UniProtKB/TrEMBL annotation:
<dbReference type="InterPro" id="IPR012807">
    <property type="entry name" value="Anti-sigma_ChrR"/>
</dbReference>
<dbReference type="InterPro" id="IPR011051">
    <property type="entry name" value="RmlC_Cupin_sf"/>
</dbReference>
<dbReference type="InterPro" id="IPR025979">
    <property type="entry name" value="ChrR-like_cupin_dom"/>
</dbReference>
<feature type="domain" description="ChrR-like cupin">
    <location>
        <begin position="105"/>
        <end position="197"/>
    </location>
</feature>
<protein>
    <submittedName>
        <fullName>Transcriptional regulator</fullName>
    </submittedName>
</protein>
<dbReference type="InterPro" id="IPR041916">
    <property type="entry name" value="Anti_sigma_zinc_sf"/>
</dbReference>
<dbReference type="InterPro" id="IPR014710">
    <property type="entry name" value="RmlC-like_jellyroll"/>
</dbReference>
<dbReference type="Pfam" id="PF12973">
    <property type="entry name" value="Cupin_7"/>
</dbReference>
Length: 218
């Protein structure tokens, strides 16, 4: 199955420039490992940046060159990117660099129960800006309704989930913020395993879930 939901230009540009913090970078790098199209987008952006910086070195105006790079990167047209299916290099479910962060693949992990059949693993980083976790949502079950106090990236690694009319499957990434109130629901038949990166606690509609947040660290 080909990836249908891609990382935004804004995140990809910041990743290309090295300005993302560790948590965001881990999510973007893991998505890139599963998405050939976004790897091509990144390569095109880096090529554009290299050419502009070469010119900037000659003119001495690197700020102007960086502004032009961001404009050029956003203007890269979809027809320049040929879609292709994911071709895994191994049977591992977790892509690199995520697998190295966790010390193994799914069979090697120790999950912590969240209740209602859901589990999580908090992933240690040196990043004080974000919180990074692996989530396992049981098939057919929803994440309680919530919105966000900041940005969130959710990358599907196994299974899939519905969010409204949209289906997110392996390799797909969803970007969310405070404008989105949603209840992502794992599809039937297989648990949904996701990498989630947030910069602030979720804002749950249920007061019971809010009461449990400090204990569950979500």
């Amino acid at each position: 199955m080909s990836v249908k939901h891609h990382i935004s230009d804004a995140f990809l540009i910041d990743y290309a420039s090295g300005s993302l913090s560790e948590g965001w970078s881990l999510a973007v790098a893991s998505h890139l490992a599963l998405c050939p199209d976004c790897r091509r987008r990144l390569s095109a952006m880096e090529g554009a940046a290299g050419a502009l910086l070469d010119k900037a070195s000659e003119s001495g105006d690197e700020d102007v060159a960086w502004a032009r790079f961001k404009t050029r990167a956003i203007d890269i047209k979809a027809e320049e990117i040929r879609p292709s299916a994911i071709t895994p290099k191994s049977m591992a479910v977790l892509p690199e660099p995520l697998r190295s962060y966790l010390g193994g693949d799914l069979a090697d992990l120790k999950w912590r129960a969240l209740g209602r059949g859901a589990y999580q693993i908090l992933i240690d980083t040196k990043d004080t800006e974000t919180q990074v976790r692996l989530l396992r949502i049981p098939a057919g079950k929803p994440v309680p309704e919530h919105t966000h106090e900041g940005r969130e990236l959710t990358l599907v690694l196994a299974g899939s989930f519905h969010d409204g009319d949209e289906l997110f499957a392996r390799g797909d990434i969803e970007e969310a913020d405070g404008e989105l109130l949603h209840t992502p629901t794992a599809t039937d038949g297989e648990d949904c395993i996701c990498l989630a990166v947030t910069e602030a606690p979720l804002k749950f509609s249920s007061w019971i879930v809010r009461l449990m947040q400090p204990i569950l660290k979500i």
